[in-house]
Amino acid sequence: MSTPAPLVLVERDQGVTTVTLNRPEALNALSAALRNEITRVFTELANDAETQVVILTGAGRAFTVGLDLKELGGEKSAVAAISSQDLSSAVTGLKQPIIGAINGYAITGGFELALMCDFMIASTEARFADTHARVGVVPGWGLSQRLPRLIGANRAKELSLTGNYLDAQTAYDWGLVNRVVAPEELLPTCQKLARDIVSTEPVTRGEIKRLIDAGWHGTLADGLATEYEASREHSAREVTPEKVAARRAGIQSRGRSQSTQDS
User: Fold this and answer.
1) 107 and 211 both lie in a single domain
2) What is the pLDDT of residues 207-244, one digit of tens each?
3) Would you say residue 2 lies in a domain?
4) Last residue of a domain, which of 178, 198, 218?
5) Residue 93 φ/ψ, nearest 5 degrees
6) Do 159 and 109 reside in the same domain of the chain?
7) 38: pLDDT confidence band, cut at 50, 70 and 90?
8) Residue 205: pLDDT above 70?
9) Residue 1 maps to a domain
């Protein structure tokens, strides 16, 4: 009897960990078993010193089409599932940056999972849709709050109240994704960005991400106050003449290298 394929594939490479949802035959529908495995993997990555950046993607034609409706409808049995809040907390609580490599359909719960990433790069094959109103389920993983902040309330209402699909180019035009690339360029593009992140100073990088996230969840006044206090404390610890000189040399070297590549 053959061993079933892992529901989540994890590949580590020099600080970059690629996590692939692996139910391609079901368009990576989020069965209870897959949700449990995603939660387990991200909980482990939170304590993995080797992982500095995570790339999250899906196998096959979909990123993920959301919750497994056959399980929800009782058409097939499900394993005991952890709470949905545990999955959300495991992913959004990760301190390492998450790049969403959106390879195909990101629907409803899959759209919510994509929105948990720090930023997204989309294949030209990517398609987004929020069908909560059609399925009769209220979002529970943050879509109603994150989506308007990215694309504006009016556009978010259009998507969520109609359930219509959003193509990759429009997602880019609306500011939902950072870039749109050919399918074969999706992972290489994300890997290059991940390596760029790994090359930055880890303590400072983590603090900048924390500040952006804090501002995202609070008011502008809250964010400015948090930034000022963090900048003051960080400067006292990390901004010494010796450290700045060393980093400046690295920045200049990188700038010369990129200028050569562009010319």
Assistant:
1) no
2) 999 999 988 888 767 766 776 787 678 767 775 667 65
3) no
4) 198
5) -85, -5
6) yes
7) very high
8) yes
9) no
Give dist(CA 125, CA 78) in Å, integer.
Answer: 30
DSSP state of 38: H
- Reported as a pLDDT band with limits 50, 70 and 90, residue 157 is very high
Beta bridge partners of 56: 19, 100
Residue 74 has pLDDT above 90, yes or no: no
Amino acid in the structure at residue 108: T
Range of the domain at 13: 8-198
Q: Does pLDDT of 77 surpass 60?
A: no
What domain count does the chain have? 2
Burial 190-228 (b: 16+ CB within 10 A, else e): bbebbeebeeeeeeebebeeebeeeeeeeeeeebeeebe
- The more confident residue out of 103 and 259 is 103
Indicate whether 47 and 113 sit together in one domain.
Answer: yes
Structure tokens at 211: 């500040």
Tell whether 216 and 155 lie within a shared domain: no
Residue 102 and residue 122 in contact, taking contact as beta carbons nearer than 8 Å: yes
Are 26 and 42 members of one domain? yes
Picking from 105, 152, 121, 138, the residue whose alpha carbon sits closest to that of residue 53 is 121
Query: What are all long-range contacts of 5-11, with beta carbons under 8 Å and residues at least 24 apart?
Result: 6/37, 7/33, 7/34, 7/37, 8/34, 8/37, 8/38, 8/41, 9/59, 10/41
Q: Rounded to whole angstroms, what are the CA distances from 5 to 21, 25, 34, 146?
A: 11, 12, 12, 33
| Amino acid at position 45, single letter | L
